[in-house]
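Researcher: Please predict.
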Amino acid sequence: MKEKRKLLLLLACVLIFLMLTRIFQKKDENPPEPEIIVTLPEAEIVVYNTRDDIIQVMKLDDYLVGVVAAEMEAWFSMEALKAQAIAARTYALGRAVGKYGSNMERHFGAHVCTDSTHCQAWIPKEMYPIWYPKADPEENWARVEQAVHETSGLILTYEGEIINPMYHANSGGITEDVEEVWNSVKPVPYLQSVYSEGEKDYSSFEKSVVLSGEKVREVLMKEYSEIVFLGPVSEDVQVIQFTGSDRVKEIRIGSIAIPGTKFRELFGLSSTQMKIQFIKDDEMEILTYGFGHGVGMSQCGANALAQKGKDCSYILEYYYTGVEIVFIPEEILSSLKTDRQK
């Protein structure tokens, strides 16, 4: 009886061994599939270098390193730099394909230029120490390269179309609706006002300008010859209307009313989000909050979000409502190639 039990136990062990052997053999016959790495074609962009007055054909990401280096402080958090890289790539390609007021004639046929008043700022590596004399140029340039290369090929779209990703330095705590800055533009769903916290600690948050009545009158008379002044600035200057983000929409000066954006331009102010205080009857102090037009992504706000642990996708989707982050569509890449062949 005991021998029979031993035999049955031995047979059971043999069967288990054979089953396990077959399972492991099947696993060996079906090894895991290798990781698939998608390599995007390397895009090129034609750039009019306004500083040197030459047209250059550059690899897109090489150009973007110079843009991000010029447009954002390299000590900002890496996720903020990545958000800037994606926004800058989208901005450049939107203009390269002829959208958003692109004027290739002004660029002598190039896709974009390096004039920050028209396209995006751009600097070569050798100029970095001049722009940022207190920074470590090698370390900072490497950080910018990392941000661009780790987001290579990514752009922003809204309902399938490449967007116009406006951005600025500091929103003063809240961004602006695009139609309030450029009144010829219809409302854009992804360029609407959002709150932007954590910007007060930056030097660009608050600025002060003191203007004498004499200076105000001098500037306004050059621009509006028909203007009539009624008295000192304490009587002649009055804000008529604010936008929803508490920026000056319209301001009266003497006998005329002008947009807040024009007032900012005339006196070189940092923002239209401002408070006017009269120091004397004929002298005023203007306190501005934020730096730039206030539309789209706030760079300081992006850094504040990154410091809270938010990634570049969160940052971009927060400031550009309803957008998607996608790889550059084939039709845009084809358009760049076609332009190069002309």
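Model: Residues 26-39 have pLDDT under 50 and may be disordered.
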